[in-house]
Write a sequence for this structure.
């Protein structure tokens, strides 16, 4: 308990930044993932190919490598410099978007065929069929897989600590600088994550799942 | 080409799709060209930055780094599979004294970030006075605890998805619970869940890269260390590019094996069905 109270400044800043990383990356990943999912079911072959290429390339690359590229490689390219926080958000969003895309795509498959047939029968083009009829229903059925994607994102934010972002994963380094006991400090970090995942996100998931359940 | 989402295109839609194709092509080519141009402009393609990869010592060390990644992956994969099976059996045990702890174990270790687990194993335990913990052990134990818990859920879901008659038939011929689990339920569950199990193995492979952050000398660690070679123009970007190609290559091979096994399995099931059909 002493480690937590004595270094409450570290824990507060660390988990505040974890929260910022999580919320912003989740927002962009959701938008990008939905767009890529739309591309992967679109009628234009080039769009499908581009979406597939992106998803397969990024999903087979470790997140650590993607973040390393944006934190260490990007500054060497002579582009306008970005701070480490932004670099981490870009990397996490690009990585998580591929998982969001696959979750939504599986959701599109669960929407019954009659729905999109009806949409086509009343003359809606592809974009309207997708955005007005299919996606709203698909989103409701992918609440559980989307939440596991976001839980994974929350845990993945710790990787950014390796690339100069001060968040929960970096608390260890600061604790060891102050000469505090590391094991209790790390166990506190782990415990806070358990509370966030099992105490906040999982109940939220079952609440939304019940609220948005589609009668079929 | 048609799907549930759109009709077979008429003349107007065909031109629209052609336009969309060209548009996508232009955007994708534009992005790739811009990235390559930036790489070129900032001198990432100069011979000086790639020269380092021609040295036998560097190549040898790079192979060693690949070996380190693969050995961490191998040990962690075997360990996670064993832990997963043990935990799954534990959760399905009759006694609450066994199943509750196993339940909490899987829930807890799935909720803690893998990097924090590795840090607890490596930094935490050595700071608490336990000697002789190497980064390799930190990486492997962290991977086993996390992926073992994930795989336990996979095995459990596989076992529970089997028809109840399988168990009952086992008990009816006098097998014990352990025998039913081992000889009847587990083999079928593994077969049903094989695609998920192999995609989890790809996750283990990717997560070995986290070892970079606790100083395990694997591919990413070595590629990054090349970046500090100032006399060769600090080739950070070339190093990361080589690392990326290596990782994507290994993961694609694993996914390829997964597809092969899956198609082999499904064709074998078909053969059995066909034989039954002939016999019937």
């Amino acid at each position: 308990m002493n480690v937590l109270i004595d270094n409450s400044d570290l824990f507060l800043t660390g988990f505040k930044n974890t929260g910022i990383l999580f919320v912003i990356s989740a927002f962009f990943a959701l938008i990008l993932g939905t767009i890529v999912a739309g591309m992967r079911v679109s009628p234009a072959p080039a769009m499908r190919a581009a979406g597939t290429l992106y998803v397969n390339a990024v999903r087979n690359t470790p997140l650590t490598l993607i973040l390393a590229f944006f934190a260490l490689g990007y500054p060497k390219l002579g582009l306008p410099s970005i701070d480490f926080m932004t670099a981490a958000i870009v990397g996490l969003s690009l990585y998580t978007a591929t998982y969001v895309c696959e979750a939504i795509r599986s959701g599109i498959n669960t929407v019954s065929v009659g729905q999109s047939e009806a949409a086509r029968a009343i003359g809606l083009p592809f974009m309207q069929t997708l955005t007005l009829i299919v996606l709203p229903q698909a989103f409701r059925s992918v609440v559980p897989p989307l939440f596991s994607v976001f839980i994974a994102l929350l845990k993945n934010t710790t990787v950014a600590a390796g690339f100069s972002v001060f968040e929960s994963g970096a608390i260890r380094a600061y604790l060891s600088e102050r000469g505090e006991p590391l094991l209790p400090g790390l166990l506190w970090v782990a415990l806070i994550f358990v509370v966030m995942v099992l105490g906040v996100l999982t109940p939220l998931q079952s609440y939304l799942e019940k609220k948005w359940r589609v009668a079929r | 080409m048609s799907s549930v989402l759109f009709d077979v295109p008429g003349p107007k839609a065909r031109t629209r799709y052609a336009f969309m194709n060209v548009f996508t092509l232009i955007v994708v080519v534009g992005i790739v060209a811009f990235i390559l141009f930036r790489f070129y402009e900032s001198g990432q393609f100069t011979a000086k930055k790639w020269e380092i990869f021609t040295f036998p010592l560097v190549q040898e060390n790079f192979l060693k780094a690949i070996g380190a990644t693969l050995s961490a992956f191998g040990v962690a994969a075997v360990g996670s599979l064993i832990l997963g099976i043990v935990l799954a059996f534990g959760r399905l045990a009759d006694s609450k004294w066994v199943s509750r702890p196993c339940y909490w174990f899987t829930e807890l270790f799935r909720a803690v970030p893998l990097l924090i687990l590795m840090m607890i194993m490596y930094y935490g335990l050595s700071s608490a006075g336990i000697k002789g913990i190497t980064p390799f052990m930190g990486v492997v134990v962290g991977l086993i605890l996390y992926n073992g818990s994930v795989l336990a859920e996979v095995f459990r879901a596989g076992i529970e998805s089997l028809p109840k008659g399988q168990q009952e038939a086992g008990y009816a011929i006098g097998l014990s619970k352990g025998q039913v689990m081992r000889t009847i339920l587990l083999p079928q569950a593994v077969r049903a869940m094989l695609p998920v199990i192999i995609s989890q193995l790809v996750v283990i492979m990717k997560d070995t890269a986290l070892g970079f952050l606790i100083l395990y000398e694997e591919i990413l660690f070595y590629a990054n260390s090349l970046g500090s070679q100032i006399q060769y123009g600090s080739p950070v970007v070339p190093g990361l590019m080589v690392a990326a190609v290596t990782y994507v290559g290994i993961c694609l091979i694993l996914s390829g094996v997964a597809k092969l096994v899956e198609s082999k399995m499904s064709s074998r099931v078909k053969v059995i069905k066909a034989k039954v059909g002939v016999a019937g």
Notes: Chain A has a mean pLDDT of 89. Chain A touches chain B through 57 residues (CB under 8 Å).
